[in-house]
Amino acid sequence: MPELPEVEVLRRDLLIRLPKPSRIRRLLFLSPKLRTPLKLPKSMHDKPLVVTGIQRRSKFLIFTLDQGVLVSHLGMSGCWRAETVRSEIKHDHVIIEWENGDLWVYNDPRRFGVFEFHPDLSKVKWFSQLGLEPFSDEFLAKPVIDKIRGSDRAIKSIIMDAKVMVGVGNIYASEALFKAGINPLKTGKQVSSERIQRLLICIRETLSKAIEGGGSSIRDYAHASGEKGNFQNEHLVYGRSGEKCTHCGSKIQAKKIQGRSTFWCRKCQS
Ligand SMILES: [Zn+2]
C-alpha cells in the first residue's frame, strides 16, 4: 500500500510534469468502479478545469482547481502514470487529458482508490478526522507530546494512529522507534517528554529519508515515470527479525502489536 513518502514523491513528480498552462482538456472516467462513484457535478461539465496546484494531505493528493479540488487516494494498489501516447493497460480508471496532449492515467487493480471532486476543501469528509502532518509546525509542539504522554496504549500504536498523526505506517514506526531508542511496547505514559520529542524528530527524519530515497518500494507502487523507490533496502530493524542489530550486534526482536509486525532491538531500545 502506498505510504505518505510514496505519495509525496509522486506529488513532486507530478508537479514537475504539470503542463503549462495546466488546463485539462478532458477528464475521462473509464469505469465507475473505484471506492466511490466517479462523477463531476453537471454544473462543471462545460467549464474549463485549470489545475493551480497539487498538494498532499496524509496520503491524499489534492489537485486544486478554481472550482474546488480533485482528491485522489491510491488505496491499496493505485498509481498515476504520465504519458504522451495512450497505452491501454488493464485497470485504468481515470485519464486526465491535458490541453497539450499529455495524459495522466490512474490505474488501480484492486480499486480501493478514490478520485473525487469536492467544491470545498475544508468540507472533504476524508480529512475531518485526520491528525497532524509530520512536517507541519505544530508537529513538534507540546500538545502532541502531552497527548502521547497521556495514553496507556503502546507507543507504536499511538504514532500509527491517524487521528493523532498521519503518515506513520508500520515500517516507518519501527524504524523511527529504533532511531529514537524507544521500546515499541512501552506505553505513552512510560516515555518521558524529552524522549517523545526525540521520537517526533526521528519520525520526521525517517519520512524525509524515505522521500529522498523515492519512498519504500511496494509491489503495487511506481512513480509517475514508472521508476521504483529504494527505501526498502535501508531498513535498520523492519523485516530483520533474528538478524544482528546494526548498532550493537544483538538479535533483532519481532512481535505483533495490534496485529502489526513490529521489530526492535532489546538492547538499543528501552
Ligand atoms: Zn542494538
What does this structure look like?
The strands form 2 sheets. An 8-stranded antiparallel β-sheet has the order 5-7-6-1-2-3-4-8. The chain has a two-stranded antiparallel ribbon with strand order 9-10. The longest helix is centred in the last third of the chain and has 20 residues, at 193-212. Mean pLDDT is 90; it is low at 217-221. With 270 residues, it is of the alpha+beta class. It has 2 domains: 4-127, MutM-like, N-terminal (N-terminal domain of MutM-like DNA repair proteins), CATH 3.20.190; 137-265, Helicase, Ruva Protein, domain 3. Helix 4 packs across helix 5 (193-212). It contains 5 helices and 10 strands. The structure holds zinc ion. Zinc ion is lined by residues 245, 247-248, 250, 265, 267-268. The site of zinc ion (ZN) has 7 residues, from loops.
Condensed summary:
The protein is α+β, with helices and mostly antiparallel strands and 270 residues long. The chain has helices at 4-17, 142-149, 155-159, 170-180, 193-212; strands at 23-29, 49-57, 60-65, 69-73, 79-83, 92-98, 103-107, 114-118, 252-257, 260-265.
Give a quick set of tags describing it.
binds zinc ion, two-stranded antiparallel ribbon, 2 domains, 8-stranded antiparallel β-sheet, N-terminal domain of MutM-like DNA repair proteins, 10 strands, Helicase, Ruva Protein, domain 3, 21% helix, 270 residues, alpha+beta
Layout of SSEs?
Blueprint: H1 4-17, E1 23-29, E2 49-57, E3 60-65, E4 69-73, E5 79-83, E6 92-98, E7 103-107, E8 114-118, H2 142-149, H3 155-159, H4 170-180, H5 193-212, E9 252-257, E10 260-265
Antiparallel strand pairs: 1-2, 1-6, 2-3, 3-4, 4-8, 5-7, 6-7, 9-10
Bound molecules: zinc ion (ZN).
